[in-house]
């Protein structure tokens, strides 16, 4: 990976190593001599694997056009790597049967392509790229516990952190890590309000929106004799009358990822019969008929997003945490870069 140096500082720290953190680090490496990613989880070492730090990684993710363009700009050749990893390429107009609140969408070759794959493959490919950049260091099992400031507390000058070892779970002594810039990408679990209160600032006001939504997903082997005029199915919710939705998309290794989403009190569960019943009760039988006799490749995985949160910081700084919006993570990091260039 070749970078044009526009260095404005010596050291930047990124808190969090999910997609937002990885992309932020990639952008910052063009502006700082050294970038450090602090991630409380551990990354897979030899191949793509799910990890606790990305709890939603087993649910459906697709990479849409603008996200692909941004990521290809940041990581040339990434799209080819995803396709080499057997990501499915879908024409969203021609290949996907889409039932929306107004009926079935017209099918036509749109040229609007999306990549469908297991989310953790994308994370792994980007992590692998960044781990090979000499000016980026990735500190795993690292927890930020506070902020460093200048003497009059008008500027953040780094973080206080603890690192947890492989062989034991207890934290070691606190360490101080100086930085010219600290960016918090730790998402919904961010402790930034508490860190600010600890250095004498008020916690920001915030807006929280939650729908008590739940997801359940499972992989199935695509039957050798399966025939249909579609490659994917999207059954959209139609609130307030119907708040459930269902999806089926092809991914790598000749698998379908099948998911159902609904709000409380009807959130899906890991129960086999209930999962199939949720698919059967969708307003179209497309998904249920496809999988009822297919061979499951995994257990049913569930995910309950905690909601969406906006925090309003001083001086018109806005921090946001949106769950399950991979394109938002990509776009947010890129837009900040574009505005900076402008």
TrEMBL record:
InterPro entries: FAD/NAD-bd_sf (IPR036188)
Superkingdom in the source lineage: Bacteria
Protein name as it appears in the record: Uncharacterized protein
